[in-house]
Amino acid sequence: MMSGPPTPPSRVDVEARFAAILDGGQSRDEVDRWATRALRSLECAEVDEVIWWALGVLSGVDLRHGPGGPYLHDDEQVLGWLVEFRKRSAPSGDRPG
């Protein structure tokens, strides 16, 4: 049985991953692995550019400044990405000028 093309995650699911990092619902490692798997499976698929952008930033969210060091991207930056994701996800008429 052949399966169809891979299905990208929804914007709701992607937003939930950003929130999960910030509220401790998922580890950065879990979200990184999820985003990286999604990116790899969607390489040849047509994907919403907002989803593709978000997967790109979430893939690598667990990187550190060396072994045991602080995260390369702190919670403030993750929150900034979430805000940017919401802006990019807004209908074009709802986006701030």
Can you characterise this structure?
By secondary structure, this protein is mostly helical. The protein has one domain (11-88). It contains four helices and no strands. The model has no long low-confidence stretch (mean pLDDT 91).
**Into how many domains do the coordinates divide?**
1
Q: What value does the average pLDDT take?
A: 91
Q: What is the number of beta strands?
A: 0
Query: What is the element string, with H for helices and E for strands?
Result: HHHH
Q: What oligomeric state do the depicted chains represent?
A: single chain
Uncertain runs are: none
Shape verdict: globular
- DSSP strand content: under 5%
Number of helices: 4
Based on helices, strands and strand pairing, what is the structural class?
mainly alpha
The rounded Rg comes to 14 Å
Instruction: Report the major sheet.
Output: none
- Distance between the ends: 49 Å
- Residue share in helix: 40-55%
Task: List the keywords.
97 residues; mainly alpha; 0% strand; globular
Explain the layout of strands and helices.
Layout: H1 11-23, H2 28-41, H3 49-58, H4 75-89
Helix pairs in contact: 1-3, 1-4, 2-3, 3-4
Provide a quick synopsis of the model.
The chain has 97 residues and is mostly helical. Helices cover 54% and strands 0% of the residues.
